[in-house]
Input
Amino acid sequence: MQPDFSKYTLEELLDIERNIDKDTYPERYEIVCKLIKVKEADPVEIESIELKEKSSKIHRVLYVVAFFWFFAFYSIIKGEFTLKSYTATYANEPLAFFFGIGFYLGFGLYLYFVYKKQYNKLINKDK
Output
């Protein structure tokens, strides 16, 4: 039984083209190559792939946001803020401690809003 490659997206067809055993399935390989040429001419397919690539790059910012927020909450739980060799504890230096926590939370929040702005710009551009 042969799969219906016409229902596959361009991204899926490109993956199949890279991974198919051309010696075992030469007729499937030909079909996939022809469908790739057809789909590459379709601007909707191309825009879909470009949107996925751009949005995946933008989503990486969320990992950085999570990193900063993790360290902020970890510092609150631990009761000390450490940056390189400097350590400020809640008991000994509360002002520096809260400044450090505020930096982690504030910078994480700033990056989150930058992410949202870029993501909304990307989504609204395609409409």
Remarks:
- Strands lie at 80-83, 86-89.
- The chain has two domains: 5-41, 59-125.
- The radius of gyration is 25 Å.
